[in-house]
Amino acid sequence: MERNENATVEFVEKISELVKAENEPFHVENVLGKTFVNKRWYEVEKNKPEIMKLHSLKSLVDFVKTTVENNNCNLTLPLVIEASYTTMLVHTSLADDSSRVTIATVEPIKPDINFGRFIDIHNFIIQLQTCFADTENKKMLLDTIKYISTEAKVETVDNGISNTVTATTGVSLKKEISIPPIVKLVGYRTYREIEQPETMYLLRAEDGGKLALFEADGGEWQCVAQKRVSEYLYSELSEQIDSGKVVIMG
User: To pair with 88 at 20 to 30 A between CA atoms, which of 22, 73, 105, 228?
Assistant: First the structure.
């Protein structure tokens, strides 16, 4: 019985503490460099700038220059830019409480290119014309595949090294077309401010005249693109880098 009475007393005391705390006036306290309110001890976050969503290297450069010049929000410098051929992030340096604030994201605007999937000849030509830069290799490829663009029947022979496509028109007219196994093309796959890297593709055809491009460079184009992005940023932000206000990572 005594044990139950003690448990009841502890329960009542706990309820009293909670009621008392709930009725206390609102106030804030600083604990280990962080600000909390006494109501359930929610942390009060510091003012943080809205994350900017950018889509080009030029807009990134302009944003960084303006930010470090004005620094209206008292951001912790230097700004750290995660350089990449694709999505990039801009962070502040570590604050006294080891926190870091992301102030911008950058993502290139680029077409959606079908790789590793067979598509009909008409859509393949449209993709070549709209998603790849005009080069001599592109022109040669278009000249090669144009013979099967309107044929009623297309047959292919693939020996693992090259494709032979036979396009048939009407009853007796045939034209044999040799499809190169590897083609080098320049696709729009990263930021337009830099030179788009040339990439090797494995070109394959299947019965019915469908064609597909498969990446064949082991991702080398990504390394080239990232290097060019970094070089662009180092060039355009050289003054801010030299003054210690910006750091490029990547």
Answer: 73
Q: Where are the domains of the chain?
A: 2-44, 52-109+226-249, 121-218
Q: What is the pLDDT along the chain (250 residues), one digit of tens a residue?
A: 455 556 666 766 765 665 565 566 666 666 556 666 555 545 555 667 889 999 999 999 999 999 999 887 789 999 999 999 999 999 999 988 788 899 999 999 999 999 999 999 899 999 999 999 999 999 999 988 877 754 445 555 555 555 665 655 433 334 566 777 899 999 999 999 999 999 999 999 887 778 999 999 999 999 999 999 999 999 999 999 999 999 999 8
CATH of domain 52-109+226-249: 3.30.720
Q: Side by side, which strands form the sheet with 163-169?
A: 153-158, 163-169, 173-179
